[in-house]
Amino acid sequence: MKKSRHLRIGLSCVLAAGLLAACSQTAEKPQEQPAGNTAAPQQSSPAPATTQTEKKEEPKVVTLAMEAEPISMDPQNVTDGNSISVQSTMFEGLMTFNDKMEPIPQLATEYAFNEDATEITFTLREGVTFHDGSPFNAEVVKANLDFVLDEKNGMARRNFFSFIKEVVVKDPTHVTIVATSPNSTMLSYLAHPASSMKSMEAIKKKQADASFNLDRNPVGTGPYQFGEWKDNQHVKLVPYENYWNKDAKAKVEAIVYKPVTEASTRINMLKAGETDIISKLPTLNAKEIASDSNYNVFTAPSLNVYYVGINMKDKKYADKRVRQAMNHAINKDDLIAGVLDGYGQVADSPIAPNTYGYAQQKVYEYNPDQAKKLLAEAGVKDGFEATLWTRNSSEFIAIAENVAMQLDKVGIKAKVQAFESGTLFDMLDNNKGTDLWIGRWSPGTGEVDYGIRPNFHTKSFGPANNNSGFYSNPQVDQLLDEAITIANKDEAMKKYAEVQRIIVEDAPWVFLHVPDNVVAKASSVTSVTVLPSDTVVVDNVEKK
């Protein structure tokens, strides 16, 4: 995800049997409460003859309150999680992720790499139609990928697909994607929501009329189709009756996504029955909500890593010992307890443990005396002044203030400055006085290469990518470039593990924490899945 700080992952805590199940490693985290019987009693016999009117069953509408309004309904033109969550019920791709973030076939039925991992050929599912009735086939796959790769179309995800050299249609049910160079991670990229397929007819409309808005006219193949979008109110999705998978057809009459910025408002809506699901449940409220049998709370480690980014071009950070001292200066356990209410774990790598290819590293233990010793050895015994940028959300500000307070104890006086996220990203992209910043990164592909390359490869310097700290290590570059070309996963993982070791040793970030995903729902709603990537999947949602 561009500046979201900005093949598979290991077993993660996920939902079983369609129920949100709390996954906690520590006893103090809330466990899921048994679902309460909140459904209205059903009549088992006809109403008495004296009753002239029957009570009609209310439409089964599932409402999800999320922290912000989506930006677009075009999967190839967004990088924000709210848009991706809404799109997930409307769009499908050749591949998708299962609840362990493993790539599995969706609109494809089979796939095969060639020997040197430069090509992957898909066999496509037959009998699939888009919501506008048009067919899905190999020509549609080519049209989608050619469209996003065409620079003149200005798609937000264009760089995401830069590994593609050519898309070759073999016949209506077979298509080959040719990479610019050997690329063992292609499958994960093609399982990412950005690789979802939209209708050929929609693409043709855009090509014929530049004013046609793909962001507002989504046409996919999923179980739900676009209903309406009322700005700042809701996005409504309704069932697609001709959905190809007869065993997974829509089970409710509508899904409504409501943008609700204020977290306390989302909680009050859940309690009042005005929403069924709330994403980004504040950790402060998790125990309270979990203690009520009318609700279920889900907690599990996410793919996000929070960190303090460091501008490596600034001479005060040139000595590695300064950066290592900053890592020793932060008590991450206290930060997690104080800011996240315990819902997280210490980061020991630039990627989270649930990311495929993660290799455990030695944690920078909290040791202010060691931090002061390293600063003295680096010639800055008395510390220095710094500026710490952050987003202007309450969570990011709290993290920044905690970090600044702890750095101050070893002589580093960091002044916190908060900015709207878009402004902050522009400043980082253009290096407008970059010093330190609070960052967050999650690889949407769920694998190690996309977790590391955008942030640490020399070719990933901003504004083209996320390496706004200008970290450059030729050994890291070489290992990354070698690893992605190796078809043998075990050999590739050895190189990625070495990359993680080097990066942690070099300390271009202050590695902070991996937060938990925390989502709450009414116990009357079932078959909801939360992926480690934060996406709340409601394709198969049911409501009592």
For the largest beta-sheet, the strand count, sense and barrel status come to: 12 strands, mixed
Mean pLDDT: 89
Helix content: 25-40%
Radius of gyration over all CA atoms, rounded: 24 Å
Given the C-alpha coordinates, what overall shape results? globular
Q: Beta-strand percentage?
A: 15-25%
What's the total count of β strands? 24
Distance between the termini: 36 Å
The helix tally amounts to: 14
Uncertain regions spanning at least 5 consecutive residues: 1-53
Structural class given helices, strands, pairing? Answer: alpha+beta
Q: What's this, in brief?
A:
The chain is an alpha+beta fold. The protein has helices spanning 81-87, 138-149, 186-191, 200-208, 263-271, 283-290, 320-329, 332-339, 368-377, 394-408, 421-429, 448-456, 474-483, 489-506, and strands at residues 61-66, 92-93, 95-97, 103-105, 108-113, 119-124, 164-171, 174-179, 196-197, 224-230, 234-239, 254-259, 277-278, 295-301, 305-310, 344-346, 384-391, 412-419, 436-441, 509-522, 525-526, 529-530, 536-537, 542-543. The strands form six sheets. Strands 1, 10, 11, 12, 13, 14, 15, 16, 17, 18, 19 and 20 form a twelve-stranded mixed sheet that branches. The protein has a four-stranded antiparallel sheet with strand order 5-6-8-7, with helices on one face.
Structure commentary:
The protein has 544 residues and is α+β, with helices and mostly antiparallel strands. Helix content is 26%, strand content 23%. The strands form 6 sheets. Strands 1, 10, 11, 12, 13, 14, 15, 16, 17, 18, 19 and 20 form a 12-stranded mixed β-sheet that branches. A 4-stranded antiparallel β-sheet has the order 5-6-8-7, with helices on one face. Strands 2-9 form a two-stranded antiparallel ribbon. Strand 22 (529-530) and strand 23 (536-537) form a beta hairpin. Helix 13 (474-483) packs antiparallel against helix 14 (489-506). The radius of gyration is 24 Å and the shape is globular. It starts with 60 loop residues before the first strand and ends with a strand.
